[in-house]
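Lab notebook page, bench 4
Experiment: in silico fold of construct C2
Operator: M.H.
Input chain length: 964 residues
Purpose: comparison with the prior construct
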Amino acid sequence: MSLTDFCPPQHQALLTQRWEDWCAAAGAEKVAEKGTDSVAEVEALLDEHKSRALARVFVGSDFFVQQCTRHTEWLAHFLRDEDCGLVAPDLAEIETEEQLEKALRDLRNRVNAEVIYRDFAGQWDIPTACARLTELAEVCIQAALDWHREKMVARHGEPRSRDGVIQPMVVLGMGKLGARELNLSSDIDLIFAYPEPGQSDGEKPLENQAWFQRLGQRLIKSLDAVTADGFVFRVDMRLRPYGDSGPLVSHYAALEDYYQTQGREWERYAMIKARPVAMSGEGAAEAAEELVELLRPFTYRRYIDFSVIDALREMKTLIQRQVRARGLIDNIKLGRGGIREVEFIAQAFQLIRGGREPDLRVRNILKVLPLLEEGGHLPEGAAAELRDAYLLLRRVEHGLQAEKDHQTQTLPPEIERREQLAFALGYDRWATLETALVQARAAIEREFDEVIAPPEESSEITDSDQWEFLWAGCERAEDRDNWLEQLHNAGFQPAAKALEALASLHGDRIVAALPAAGRQRLDQTMPLLLAAASEVSESLDPLLALERVLPLLRSILRRSAYLVLINENPPVLAQLLRLCSASPWIADLLARHPILLDEMLDQRRLLQPSTAEDIADDLRQHMLRVDEGDLEAQMEALRHFKQGQSLRIAAQEVTGALPLMKVSDSLTWLAEAILQQSLTLAWQQVVEKHGMPKDASAEDMRFSIVAYGKLGGLELGHGSDLDIVFVHDADSSGYTSGERALDAQSFYTRLAQRLIHILQTRTLSGPLYEVDTRLRPSGNSGLLVTSLSAFEKYQRESAWTWEHQALVRTRPVAGSARLGLAFEDLRSKLLCAARDEQKLRKEVVEMRNKMRAHLDKSNDRQFDLKHGTGGIVDIEFMVQYAALAWAQGAPSIVRYTDNIRILESLSEAGLMPAHQAAHLIDAYKAYRSEGHRLALQQLPGVVSGDQFEAERKTVETTWQQMLG
């Protein structure tokens, strides 16, 4: 059958002419090269489906025919292969700029031709075609950038910061390139950036600005210049700061200053799709991430930003004026119901809500639309309708651009060309395609007018008014449906549960009994609270936020000054909801101790991590404000301080200001500071009553608190007990200097008892810490305080293997610095003692099996993070075994008390392969991170049985190798 059999009569002449042109070129190539017969090869590949596809593409794209005529072998590849792929040019083989330009243009023309064929043949949908064109752009930009950078470095040296750090260049792709939605004939919108000013280090140095400007200019030329082979991409740099009048390349500080002080709404709109598409130079990946983070606050505001609507209306109005003035009614991108309106719909919601809804911060419009519907921002079914309409318009856009490789979105006026377009896209005639276009554009136009309505069509009732109405009438049964709809639309789901909670508070007797001023303050607070709860960000649940804050609200109703604090400080309310949503532990802490709301007034301080010195100094300053003679007040002050610091650390954890390891550090430092301060108080009281032991002083009490377990290993969590042991090195035969003298042992026992009293007594603010001293020599049957010499004797002669394991994680945390050093020296000697490894292995395994039998909560459905097989305790036991077995030959492995640094030390000492240590560290961090998260959620430390499978297997394998 002939190709013309698959083509309507009105297109057969054009098809015949273009087919003959290709056959002539292929035949001439055969004569010139005496090669294979390309025509025969292609004809042999044709079946009915491929013949129809070939007829469409030859009728629909003159560009395709021209490219296949210049490269006759391409057509057989397109017909034979499902995907011809995309391979970057080999830069090592490219010596001149002309060779680079030809290689890039040949690649571009081949990829574009293939995309046209696959589209018209129905093999690739629009997202696939756009993804391939985007990949092409990324490959070409990166290749040109790498090639030119190498030449620039050879001539001018590496660009460096003033500190000597090599400076990379990052290319931001904007618009359709950034969103991976590139057209057949798109411009590419780029912004060039580098981190810091400085100078290159070559024989002909340049300031970094000039260095990167030259690199940018050469990159643009390689892509944009029109040669005998055409162009790669038209490059548009007008989206950079200050547009055409601004520098071609900017360093990060200049970018940040521009967007903070002069950035406009349309630039925020453009930044939604921005992403790094190419980069070169040492540290480029990190620099690209830094740039993305730098730009995010400009693009996405932390609040719900309805001001965007007005800005978008103005932009769209300007475009519509251009459409009318330039007669662009048939423009399927800029005209009414066009591609741009779909983009406006999606990006309006992204700009308005992206600051509070991170899920919306995606660049690709087809990914945004279903998220908007899921979030209730678009009505049910709208996302699919908009997607289908958008894909049709984009396919027609590709068909228009495929004809001549021109950047056009305007439907041709000639009926003949319209029929050619319809045939190429697989429609029987133009009228069918036109009907589909009219329906698609009408659907887009309707939704656009709903989202970006003119100001005069907007309701005069504000969101604030609506929440006031709801709070005032939440108990009215006749309005129940209205309130449920409002709550549901605001994200309170199930809405009935939220309404029930509100009605319960509104009708509570304690509310009815409030004085007028208190009730007025509550009535001001509740609408603000509801509005803020509906805006909680980062996928948090508005209903959960409301439910967790209401107990706090009830606790402060009679202290309405706190309501004023909330009303007058919107950031406090927003942060309060965010923290309570993230953690019931925080919500419970605030409800029990509303005074902690004061901590939230200074947002900067709340989320600013502290060092150990900061915490200790803050505590000293805090205690100076308390009467030295009032022990009860001092104990309360310690508790208030601990609660405030605990809130800050938890807030820093849930907001990401502190990573897991730093959270444990901060909690450990807090405990150490409180232990030292509590010990000082206890010392003052016992000394006042009994005098001091011989050779002791406030500076050197000859007494030390030794931490075991989590405190010893710097791994304290929220609500952890303190495992501590007390040691002294005073003369046991001596007595104290007071009138009611005691022997040294009795004195230090009293001191330890007084310390435990200060820590554990339940005042109005609760205990400071629960204390466990059972790890002392002989446990509960042993002395509360042990002399250092007696401690050594016990450890050498009587201690069980598990007690030596526990010693791995011990360190002095308060008391005599001198005695602390002596204890550390003793610990090192004890751990470095020679041991029978076989016996040690047997006893460690037996203890682990015994613990697992009694404590492991794992089963077929859940995994106990701590005690389960392959869990935290397995890692700890392996670390302890390694320390006890190998420290004699490598004392450095017991220098530290925390598991992670011990594992690192084992690797550094060559006792454990680096990859094995790294895997154990990763597993340990993952388990502890999840454990911290569960603790903040007040949940037990068990997870689904299918979680952490890889980590568990790694730990189990290592266990078998070491202890199996």
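Observations: Residues 82-299 form a domain with the Beta Polymerase; domain 2 fold (CATH 3.30.460.10). The two ends are 74 Å apart (CA to CA).
Next step: discuss at group meeting.
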